[in-house]
Amino acid sequence: MDKQLVVSPAPHLKSPETIKSVMVDVLAALVPAAIAAVIFFGTPALLTMVITTLSAMLTEALILRNKNIFGDGSAAVTGLLLAMTLPPAPPWWLCVVGGAVAIIIGKQVFGGIGNNIFNPALVARAILMVSWAGHMTTWLAPVDLTATATPLVTSTAPGFLQLFTGTTAGCLGETSVFALLLGAAWLFYKGHINWRIPGGYLGVVFLMGAALGGGLSAGLFHVLAGGVMLGALFMATDMVTSPVTPKGQLIFGMGCGLITMLVRFYGNYPEGVTFAILLMNAVTPLLDNLTLPRVYGEVTK
Amino acid sequence: MSPKTFKGGIHPGDFKNLTEKKPVVPAKPPAVAVIPLSQHIGAPCKPLVAVGDEVKMGQKIGDSDASISAPVHASVSGKVIKIGTCKSNQGHLVNAVFIENDFQDTWHESVKPNPDWEQLPAEAIPKIVREAGVVGMGGAAFPCHYKLVPPDKIEFVVVNGAECEPYLTCDHRLMLERPEDLIVGVKLVMKAVNARKGLIGIEDNKPDAIEAVRKAAANDPDIEVHALPTKYPQGSGKQLVSVLTGRETPSGCQSTTVGCLVQNVGTCVAVADAVRFGLPSIERIVTITGAGVKEPKNMLVRVGTPLTQVIEECGGFTDDLRKLIMGGPMMGPTMSGPEDIPIVKGTCGILCLTEQEVQLDEIGPCIKCGKCVEVCPMGLMPLFLASAVEQRLYDIAETYHAVDCIDCGCCTYICPAKRPLNQWIGMAKNEIKAKQRRAAAAK
Lengths: 301, 443
Fold this sequence. Notes:
The complex is a heterodimer. Chain A is mainly α. Chain A has a single domain (about 20-285), classed as Ammonium transporter AmtB like domains (Ammonium transporter fold, Orthogonal Bundle). Chain A has helices at about 20-40, 45-65, 75-85, 90-105, 120-130, 135, 160-165, 175-190, 195-215, 215-225, 230-235, 245-265, 275-290, and strands at about 140, 145-150. In chain A, helix 3 (about 75-85) packs across helix 5 and helix 9 crosses helix 10 (about 215-225). Chain B folds into 3 domains: about 1-25 and about 105-360, NADH-ubiquinone oxidoreductase 51kDa subunit (Rossmann fold), CATH 3.40.50.11540; about 30-100, CATH 2.40.50.100; about 370-440, no CATH class. In chain B, about 25% of the residues lie in helices and about 20% in strands. In chain B, strand 5 and strand 6 form a beta hairpin. In chain B, helix 3 packs parallel to helix 5. The model of chain B has no long low-confidence stretch (mean pLDDT about 95). At the A-B interface, helix 1 of A face strand 15, strand 16 and helix 12 of B.
């Protein structure tokens, strides 16, 4: 025994998970949706995802002076998530700007990972939407890539099977519900997400869709169409920007659902997911402090 | 009705396969027994012997007048060669009596069986337990006699056979090898506090022990044996009481407030030995384990045996030893070297971890994953507590109930950013207590 002994406080056993391993899990969870995007939208989709992700990683690596471009993996997650919210074939420079903006304005100005208030990918999406509305709403039909409109805009709604498997127009990540659910199952299994945020979000969307849209099938349509699946499973559940308390998480999810549906039915935009989540991000600290769990043995005066 | 399990908790993987099937073997007595005068919570003892005195095994060699204290006894027969200091497992120096062993193991006259032990009145039991120096054998080492005169009415004696710390198997082997003695001890404790029932909780990763204890308790309708879901920290007093009785101990109070007295299985057996045979607390089962020791074992070790001798009997360390812990992996203190620190009444285990098992992680930023909130058995918010302490805002830490932390370490275990949450919360507890002491002194 020639090395000195390590003296450190207990506990001496720690979970093998690290920030990086959590980020890799999230990336893995997005792979089915990424594959679906390439199947339906081809090379443009692949390029969009690669450029956005690389731009985000490079921006963060430069700002933090990282030893390698992957870092702790969080920039890659932000980049890929942002790509998922883009239409299939935006100009390459829009992807570069989006990735950089997500990291700089969405994350680093707040003090880096853990300190940002808003979901960085959605911050970038919001900025891109108001800056280049035209590019951000140029949709392509899947497989044949002809210009078309999304299910939320067309009057003839596609069938539920189409919405589920992904053969409708939309952003890269929002079309294939099936692929998203596969990925979310992985995150559930690993314990990185729980039922509260997605359940609250999708539950309210379904109920309001049924109430305002006239019937249960309208409710189902609203759950499957647009960015709600991606938003509820991957965006709203972003750890840094969502509550840590169980009740807080449920209220957060429900709030996202409420605002999404209000925008869809009464607002100007066809889709409300981006702003719903950003607005609920803002009240997350408040929600946490209003929903503190009961302390064991709490003596109520 | 009692819940099946408590809120939160973790599953760290138990590593008990290294020693759980190994019967307890006696360790060699030491050539010089170093008996610390403080092996318990409470006032340290003053020596009752002087250098040059001949002492017999089991003779009381240290005592104190304080109410929260416990005497210490010689674990060998021989001559007192020194009264000085030795290092404790907490890292500081404690006063100790050094006895040169004559290897005769001559028992002191006070150590004799009591054939009428079953007729003893309840009040006599705490006195005998005190004289025998019995302290909590689960590691905390609180003087047992003091707990046997509780301020509140006791309905249940809750017996901790959970042994929730990974690696440790000393309680497991005790329950397997001396289940009848355990039941005798439980009944004596119940008699002393006039409890209506004894509830023995054993984690379900020890099915053989559950069966053995159930068989031993078969003729006692007042003693129940419960298999509990294996989850750390099931053995924590508050969590054990919750799961076995459904009662929650109010913040700042002892479990006696809800009519429950918690005792470790080892303590119950020590009570039985003291009452039936007049045996003082001079030896205990220690689990020596980990990949860093060549032959992991469960050994019956005399108090005062140096750590180095026990390790030698287990084949010695491996070349890649990197961490030495005198206790369990979740709450035990690390040693800076394999020194002659004596085994004391509260030493449950010696854990030897190798290079691969030691994690030296950099502290990362909090990503608000909320896993610490999920696992905290007390319903606290470790991430907020830690963030308050990082900024030295101890008053804010107090509003987040820092004082209710039980130091289990679940939050620190689960944190992906490897933040030392329990250390920060510990700092807050110290500062809050210091502030309370200053305020009380100012009055």
